[in-house]
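Progress report, Aim 2. The chain analyzed during this reporting quarter is listed below.
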Amino acid sequence: MSDWKPKRFWTTATATECDGGFTVLLDDRGVRTPAKSSLTVPTIALAEAIAAEWDAQIETVDPVTMPLTRGANAAIDKVRTQHAEVAALLSEYGDSDLLCYRAAGPDALIARQAAHWDPILEWAAESLDVRLAVGEGVMHVAQNPDALARLRAEVESFDEFSLAAAHDLISISGSLVLALAVTRKAITVDHAWMVSRIDEHWQIEQWGEDDEASALELTKRAAFMDAARFYELSRR
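Predicted structure tokens for the chain:
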């Protein structure tokens, strides 16, 4: 039964206005989340993109091909009811942000990290009033409590849809600062992905590609891009 997928039963998926926002109709039936809530999203753009995912299903429904639908389900069924807990979990990344942990060598890798990561940390200092300390190696780098409090406030300010998107942006990249830079349009999502993979790409340059690792990176990159798109589409 684990391979069972529901069959397509509708002719057309359309986005429409509803109480509290916008939803998707499958013919005349409103889409519901796995928890049976109405799939109500904050913008018509997101509703239209979700409707396109449903229209793209052929004979059976494959959730793997529907990242925006999955994102809306997560926002409504999980994040909305656990907003404080999710925000607290993601805020913890500020105390172990990828951009703060630098290689001890070789010099070329140290320089590459500095060239790409230092400007983003400087942006955080200027735009968010958050200046994070940088250390060498993997030992914990203590951060200023006030800086961490300001990062936490940024995360707590997200609504459930933004927070659902931020979850993937942060957890996949390992950087809260990088995710905030994407959501504030300080950097592009493509650039964010590239700088989040500096260490991995350095290893590839030294030792060559591994097929399994390359396939995993493609999966992570797709999820990262989907999260950024979900964030943008959900903005009023």
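The longest helix spans residues 211-234. The first strand starts at residue 13 and ends at 18. These observations will guide the mutagenesis work planned for the next reporting period.
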